[in-house]
Amino acid sequence: MNPQATHPTRQNENPDRSTYKQEGPPTGGILNDLISVVIPNFNGEDTLGRAVTSVLSQSHTHIQLIVVDDCSTDNSVAFLRQKVNDPRLLIAEHQKNRMLGATRNTGMSLAVGAYLFFLDADDFLLPDALKILLTRAKECNADVVQGASLRLNAKGKSSMYHQAEFISDGGIDGLQHFSDHRFASVAWNKLYRRDLFENGTGLRFIEQYMHEDVPFAMTCAFKARRIVSIATPVMCYTENTKSMVGRSPNRLNMESYAFLYLKLMELCHDFDLYSNPTGIALARRIIKAHGTDDIIPKLMRCLDEMGRAKFEETLSEVGFSLAGRHGMVAASLVGGFTSLLLDTQATKPQKKSQNPLKVIKRLIGKRDQRTR
Which of its termini does the chain have fewer beta carbons within 10 Å around, N or C? Predict the structure, then answer.
């Protein structure tokens, strides 16, 4: 959602978290009932003010608001300094563009509240959102409380989004809810107990790729001791035509798709899902729901918009890049994607009434059958 995810200066990433400037009230120690709200920003001038106002005007007032700017080139940060005079606001600025995952991680490192909430700069909270989520977290002693969202399209029409009611003790049960999308694979509709990210859990956002929400949500679903999901809407998610969803696909998109598929398989291994038939079945559902069903359509769009020659060239570059970072298994995965998509396009000419995604899914299903 946040347009920073497509910032072109990816080569300027710097993993050193000491490269941001910080201003705002001094911080230190975890404070009970204090909710640290992290808003990543990249050129959010048109919507950032609305997001900030929605946080600072919450009925729950014990808030630390952290806006982390990832090298914006607009006036969004200047606007905050000029127009927002609230001691609860802290502004941090990266010195080099590092993408959405790193921006959220910077916000986490500055948070001092007992709870965390992530809000994108083009979305906004409903007035009682944090009060509702915190109350439920305390009632159920929950590590994560998920709320529903209102989805606003470009025409201003709204629909309910991520609406589910359940209580889970995490672990395998949490992954079951993740596999069927009841536990949403996004970061921004949930209140998290900050302890979930401490004590050596290593729970952070991926910093080199897009779609960092998905492995983050999967890890939360497994590691949380108690998850509560409520059907009450707590925020508005707005469809942003300037975001990565609305822009033409590029190499970073494709590399992120391939890495996400690899990361899902890696997490299934880390969570020991491959050790028994029940776990293997769950792993397949997770990879299908958050990998195949999501990634294949996105790669089809890349193929359609880029054309075959550019698509092959770009995926070849992606394979070399991932092999250098993550080994030949990653490169083999990219090769599999390439052959699957191109073979389908070449050998399965489609009538207008046919859906090419169904053909791909049938091919994947046949491959799964052969590997069982």
Answer: C
pTM: 0.84
Name the DSSP letter for residue 119: -
Helix ranges (DSSP H) in 25-169: 48-56, 76-83, 99-110, 129-140
If you ran DSSP here, which 8-state letter would residue 195 be given? G
How far apart, in whole angstroms, are the C-alpha atoms of residue 199 and residue 72? Answer: 33
pLDDT-derived band at 72, boundaries 50, 70, 90: very high
- Structure-token pair, residue 196: 């979930």
Rounded Cα distance, 295 and 290, in Å:
8
Give the CA distances from residue 316 to residues 65, 151, 162, 331, 346, in Å, rounded to whole numbers and listed in that order.
Answer: 42, 37, 36, 9, 18
Helix, strand, coil percent values for the chain (each to nearest 5): 50, 20, 35
> Which one-letter DSSP state was computed for residue 47?
T
Backbone angles phi, psi at 261, to 5 degrees: -60, -45
In the block, tokens 């990634």 appear at 295
CATH, range 3-238: 3.90.550.10
Q: Residue 237: pLDDT above 60?
A: yes
Per DSSP, the three-state class of 101 is helix
Strands 227-238 and 166-168: antiparallel
Ranges of each domain in the chain:
3-238, 251-371
* DSSP-assigned beta bridge partners for residue 238: 152
Residues 119, 193, 3: CA angle, nearest 5 degrees: 20
